[in-house]
Amino acid sequence: MQKWFLLSSTALIIPSSVLVYLIDPLRYLGVPRRCVQSICVFILGYAFKAVWWVNPQIRVHVQFDANEHGKPACWDDIARTGTAFALNHTSFWDAFEMISITPLLHLMQMRTLMKSSLRNIPVFGGVFDRVGHFPVYFKSDEDGNFHVDKEKQAIVSQHMRWHLRLGGSIAFFPEGTINKTPETLQTFRYGTFATIIEHRLRVYYVVAVGSEKTWAPRMAYGGLPADIHIRIGAYPVDFDKDSSKSVAVGLQKHMQQVRDEIAAEVAAAEEPRRRRKDPVSEAKGAKTLGIAAPHAAREAHATRATA
């Protein structure tokens, strides 16, 4: 499965990346940069979606958390502009996942924040700039070190403000890095939440459970069979009262609750299947607890009757 995932990803994404390189110079011929970026997003969006389509062993289940007004019930209830999507980050699959489940019309308006060093990946790294994503210039690649180069980041912030003023949306990982203990969300970084408050962006959470099963953090590439369960919902923000810190803290608490609920539901659904697959262990467990298995009870009854 993993070899097929690697082969299909390479066959679909690398040619698409090369095509994006060929299209990018159109901006030097007078085609608006934003239009060129949209074309590039269209090409790569379908390439990433295709990776998911040809890897059916990765099963994704999406549920929308409707509020008291019944929204959102589907992607049509989520605005394509002026929106921020916050995702928990447990795997390299997360990028494939978000692109796979998001309609193309939403993707065309969406940009993300990404570690600047990812742009150094041969061939593929250069497409991040061409689709308009925003680099984050960390001073160090050390885990847990989130200090940024303020001078470089100030320029990026200007570009992001321009994108949002034109009606764009953003998707980001508030944990800042892949979480190696996915059961508990890492502390959210406050930086992007200041942008959310400044531009009064609608906030939606995208909480996934199981992504690390198909592509664990320490694996070079993914593709293992997995069921990934995702819940998407709106998180209310009072822009006149809430601060970036209070929104970050509140959203983290809520996303943790959602994650725990998903995990509990998955465990409850898997328990009957586990029992059917392993009846021997169930019988052993019954003996350990001093409970006779059915056949043992019948034998004991027969012995007493003979005596």
TrEMBL record:
Q: Which UniProt keywords apply?
A: Acyltransferase, Membrane, Transferase, Transmembrane, Transmembrane helix
Q: Which SMART domains match?
A: PlsC (SM00563)
Transmembrane region positions?
A: 6-23, 35-54
Q: Which InterPro entries match?
A: Plipid/glycerol_acylTrfase
Biased region (Basic and acidic residues) positions are 270-285, 296-307
What's a BP term from Gene Ontology annotated to this protein?
Answer: phosphatidic acid biosynthetic process
Q: Which is a Gene Ontology cellular component entry for this protein?
A: endoplasmic reticulum
Q: Which GO terms describe its molecular function?
A: 1-acylglycerol-3-phosphate O-acyltransferase activity
What PANTHER family is this protein classified in?
1-ACYL-SN-GLYCEROL-3-PHOSPHATE ACYLTRANSFERASE (PTHR10434), PUTATIVE-RELATED (PTHR10434:SF48)
Q: Which protein, by its recorded name, is this?
A: Acyltransferase-like protein, copy 2
Q: What is the lineage of its organism?
A: Eukaryota, Discoba, Euglenozoa, Kinetoplastea, Metakinetoplastina
